[in-house]
Amino acid sequence: MSIFAGRELRAETSDAGSAAQISNHIDSRCGLQLVACSSKVGTALAQNNGIPDKESTVDSAMTRSNPIIIIKTGSTYPQISAHYGDFDTWISHGLGQSSSLMVVDALRGDALPTASEIAGVVVTGSHAMVTEQAPWMRKLTRWLYALVHEHRQVPVLGLCFGHQLLAQALGGEVADNPLGMEVGTVALRLTQAGRQDALLSAISGHPWAQVVHRQSVLTPPPGATVLASNVHDACQAFRYGERIWGVQFHPEFSADVMRAYLQALSGDTLTQQQVDHHLPEVRECTGASSILGRFAQLTAAQVA
Fold first, then answer.
1. Do the domain assignments include residue 270?
2. I need a surface site. Which of 117, 187, 224, 260 has the fewest CB within 10 A?
């Protein structure tokens, strides 16, 4: 776990050296900066077995200085991280340098903080599959379920794998998409609720997003509102309650990262012919990218 409280994270994806340097800094500090976290985290975790504490504690303890936690559930390909950084680097950049951030590596087994110590949550993508049900996934699922149901004032945003894991935690169905893999820059169709949503309305004028996934949310959680879909996926985004979001796409991906993913998948998941088909369609998705900044703003307003 590493903490970035008010630290500038200038990980421009166009600046490969800076992004890689920040990513390496995050990795090198993991586990060392846990001491910088308030001692209440360790105490509360010990008392609650990693489950968020009660809402009364959140109301009295949550302040603007609490971080947004980025729950890292995997890493990108080494050849991509060498040039552009990793998932947490891109998400940190999207959230903005004014945000206080904390990276928690769930795959590695980092302790999950209590709700009283956080302002919001972003769950990253992963090359893992939700249906694998690995022990670390089950632990994170329980934590998310408790957070969402006991502390609904804490904003949560799941991206791709995070979207699927969040949906499953809330009672939705996740499985291989019958249409196979969806990859590249794709068009989205917002629902009426999506066009009015605090986050998804950002893409109403530019409904495009970067995607790479084989599994999907086939059935949204009971009570969830679908915000976006397309011909491949009936649930590209959903909202649960007022502050819980899942998006199947990657708002943290730049066009360069999307192209790098297509090249990385060539000869493995995709044929070179498929890659050549998708590459010319890749474009920057400014609307989708702005979702992370909007999430940071909503989180700051929530705890102000």
1. no
2. 187
Contact 19, 85 (CB under 8 A): yes
User: In 3-state terms, what secondary structure has residue 27?
Assistant: helix
The number of beta carbons lying within 10 Å of the beta carbon of residue 132 is 9
| CA–CA separation, 29 and 67 (whole Å) | 17
Taking the model in full, what pTM does it have? 0.80
- Give me the DSSP letters along 141-187: HHHHHHHHHH-TTS-EEEETHHHHHHHHHTT-EEEE-TT--EEEEEE
Task: Give a yes or no: residue 37 inside a domain.
Answer: yes
Query: Within a domain: residue 157?
Result: yes
Which are the contacts of 228, defined by CB distance < 8 A and separation ≥ 6? 188, 189, 190, 191, 194, 200, 203, 207, 236, 237, 247
Task: Provide the token pair at 121.
Answer: 């949550």
Domain for residue 265, yes or no?
no
Note whether 144 and 151 are within 8 A (CB). no
CA dist 132 and 135 (Å) reads 9
- Other CB atoms within 10 A of residue 180 CB: 10
Instruction: Determine the angle formed by the axes of helices 87-95 and 16-29, rounding to 10 degrees.
Output: 110
Q: Which two structure tokens, joined as six digits, stand for 296?
A: 């940071």
Full domain range(s) for residue 144:
2-253+286-303
Instruction: Report which of 165, 169, 203 is spatially closest to residue 186, judged by C-alpha positions.
Output: 203
The number of distinct structural domains making up the chain is 1
To which residue do tokens 């302790």 refer? 111
Catalytic residue annotation:
160, 250, 252
- Specify the length of the chain in residues: 304
CATH label of the domain that carries residue 42: 3.40.50.880
Tens-digit pLDDT profile for residues 266-296: 998 999 999 999 999 999 999 999 999 999 9
Rounded-to-integer distance, Cα 175 and Cα 164, Å: 9
- Identify each DSSP E strand in the chain by its residue range: 2-4, 68-72, 101-105, 120-123, 156-159, 173-176, 182-187, 189-190, 208-213, 215-219, 225-229, 237-240, 244-247
